[in-house]
Amino acid sequence: MIIAVEGIDGAGKNTLVTALRERIDVDVLAFPRYEVSIHAQLARQALHGQMGDLTESAYAMATLFALDRHGSLDTLAEYVDSDRVILLDRYVASNAAYSLARTGDEAVVDWVAELEFGRLGLPRPDLQVLLDTPPAIASERAINRAAEHADRERDAYERDGGLQRRTWEAYLQLANRRWGSEWVITSEAEDIIRFITS
């Protein structure tokens, strides 16, 4: 079973994933995989102003993040139709939501689905969890996190409050459309545990 935990920066994805991992037997994989993926590393450099005008293209950035996920295809395939559970801290919907928020073009959502689920063959999740953290609270958390940890400097996306608000709205659209799979909007670990154990 593949469960993707989604939300804007500072929404509490890592906190929820950690809480679930302490209570049930699950594996965890976080995207972007900055430690091991050249595509993720290039995206991070771009988000910190080190790759010229690369970030100006929503499609270019989405492609880098998609290729990062594609690098984990063999790992993800092990959880398809399996009793094992993997929690993903961000997945394909992240690309769809941020790309929609950046372009305002609904067609980009279909483009992301075709790229990632189609051409790159990534498995669709069994459940997508949207954390219901309001943008103002998420932004405050992201600012506090950056202040407390020198290695967590906010990137261009995180510093853009308007982008975070639009991304939250895009996520809500995706959840309401049941884009890619079933969705639940919550911050409660119990809601996800019920889904896994039902």
From TrEMBL:
Is Secreted included in the keywords of this UniProt record?
no
PANTHER family named among the record's database cross-references: THYMIDYLATE KINASE, UMP-CMP KINASE 2, MITOCHONDRIAL
Cite the EC number: 2.7.4.9
Under Gene Ontology molecular function, one entry of this record is: dTMP kinase activity
Q: Which domain of life is it from?
A: Bacteria
| Record's protein name | Thymidylate kinase
Q: Which GO terms describe its biological process?
A: dTDP biosynthetic process; dTTP biosynthetic process; dUDP biosynthetic process
Q: What is the lineage of its organism?
A: Bacteria, Bacillati, Actinomycetota, Actinomycetes, Mycobacteriales
Q: What NCBIfam families does the annotation carry?
A: PRK07933.1 (NF005923)
By sequence similarity, the record places it as follows: Belongs to the thymidylate kinase family.
The species this protein belongs to is Corynebacterium maris DSM 45190
UniProt cross-references to InterPro entries, sorted A to Z: P-loop_NTPase, Thymidylate_kin-like_dom, Thymidylate_kin_CS, Thymidylate_kinase
Swiss-Prot/TrEMBL keywords? ATP-binding, Kinase, Nucleotide biosynthesis, Nucleotide-binding, Transferase
Please provide, in alphabetical order, the Gene Ontology terms of the cellular component aspect for this entry: cytosol
- Gene3D superfamilies cross-referenced by the UniProt entry: P-loop containing nucleotide triphosphate hydrolases
Q: What reaction does this catalyse?
A: dTMP + ATP = dTDP + ADP
- In the UniProt record, the gene name given for this protein reads tmk
